[in-house]
């Protein structure tokens, strides 16, 4: 079981309490598709992903980024049981969406960069450590039901 | 992984023109972060008295490391040749596991995002990510 200190819990809840889900979600997903272009393979039906500007202004990508971020909400609200909380989502990503679980880490890294840019110096080493720990647990839970 | 295109090199050089002014601080912050976020990296610095972010040895070494990055930018057209002696240093003397190059690169990118939030666009991010990966590869050349 993952152990969380009181400080880690409050760091995570604070980050998400002050988050603009639409802004951060769309920025993180579009950054992922630009920095790791092979991830575009999962979004063939989303319209024009031809270049960075097209990706950044694609409304389907923006909406999906927001959706993903709201999905993270569930982990924030269930920090002591992220594995069980994401069991269904893990099955979905494996059986229906067929997403290579290595990609979860790529999106997590882009989310870290976007949050860092937003928070500036408030994204201290300790906050970074906690945020990355949280994302690592999420990533692991999402990959759990693959077989 | 892929080699650097002309577009990548241009993007790196253009961004570096601005970022180089804060190279020392970026290096110090990135190194300090790495030691906190990835504690296993502390094993290479057991001989330092103080491993906390902002400490004297961390600041000094962060500057040294970014000096290497700056050098690599100037040798971007042939990183393998340009970083030969640095590769020998890391391979034979320091013997840093190359997995750690990726870890430090990630922290450099995080600090660049914090320090230059408007300039560190996705396009600059991908160019810098590729460049740091190519740098790491050149550093690994002499390992075996």
Automatic annotation (TrEMBL), chain A:
GO BP, sorted A to Z: hydrogen peroxide catabolic process
Record Pfam families: Globin (PF00042)
Span of domain Globin: 3-147
Single GO MF annotation: oxygen carrier activity
Keyword terms of this UniProt record: Heme, Iron, Metal-binding, Oxygen transport, Transport
SUPFAM superfamilies cross-referenced by the UniProt entry: Globin-like (SSF46458)
PROSITE patterns documented for this protein: GLOBIN (PS01033)
Family note: Belongs to the globin family.
Protein name (database record): Hemoglobin beta embryonic-3
Protein source organism: Oryzias melastigma
TrEMBL record, chain B:
Positions of the Globin domain: 3-144
UniProt GO molecular function: haptoglobin binding; heme binding; metal ion binding; organic acid binding; oxygen binding; oxygen carrier activity; peroxidase activity
GO terms for cellular component: blood microparticle; haptoglobin-hemoglobin complex; hemoglobin complex
Keywords: Heme, Iron, Metal-binding, Oxygen transport, Transport
Record keyword Iron present: yes
Pfam families: Globin
Annotated InterPro entries: Globin, Globin-like_sf, Globin/Proto, Hemoglobin_a-typ, Hemoglobin_oxygen_transport
GO BP, one annotated term: hydrogen peroxide catabolic process
Xref: SUPFAM superfamilies: Globin-like (SSF46458)
Family, per entry: Belongs to the globin family.
Protein task: Involved in oxygen transport from gills to the various peripheral tissues.
Protein name, per record: Hemoglobin embryonic subunit alpha-like
Lineage summary: Eukaryota, Metazoa, Chordata, Craniata, Vertebrata
């Amino acid at each position: 079981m993952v152990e969380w200190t009181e400080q880690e819990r409050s760091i995570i809840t604070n980050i998400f309490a002050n988050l603009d889900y639409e802004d951060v979600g769309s920025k993180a997903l579009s950054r992922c598709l630009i920095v790791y272009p092979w991830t575009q393979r999962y979004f063939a039906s989303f319209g024009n992903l031809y270049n960075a500007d097209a990706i950044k202004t694609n409304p389907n990508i923006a909406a999906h980024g927001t959706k993903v971020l709201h999905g993270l909400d569930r982990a924030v609200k269930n920090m002591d049981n992220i594995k069980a909380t994401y069991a269904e989502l893990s099955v979905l990503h494996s059986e229906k969406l067929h997403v290579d679980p290595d990609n979860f880490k790529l999106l997590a890294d882009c989310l870290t960069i976007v949050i860092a840019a937003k928070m500036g110096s408030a994204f201290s080493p300790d906050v970074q450590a906690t945020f990355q720990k949280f994302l690592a647990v999420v990533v692991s839970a999402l990959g759990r039901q693959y077989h | 992984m892929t080699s650097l295109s002309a577009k990548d090199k241009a993007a790196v050089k253009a961004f570096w023109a601005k970022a180089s002014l804060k190279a020392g601080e970026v290096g110090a912050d990135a190194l300090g972060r790495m030691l906190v976020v990835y504690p296993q990296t502390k094993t290479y610095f057991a001989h330092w008295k103080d491993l906390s972010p902002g400490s004297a040895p961390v600041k000094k070494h962060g500057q040294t490391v970014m000096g290497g990055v700056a050098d690599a930018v100037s040798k971007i057209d042939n990183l393998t040749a340009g970083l030969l002696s640095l590769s020998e240093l890391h391979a034979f003397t320091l013997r840093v596991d190359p997995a750690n190059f990726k870890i430090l690169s990630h922290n450099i990118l995080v600090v660049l995002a914090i320090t230059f939030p408007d300039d560190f666009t996705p396009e600059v991010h991908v160019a810098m990510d590729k460049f740091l990966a190519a740098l790491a590869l050149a550093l690994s050349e002499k390992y075996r």
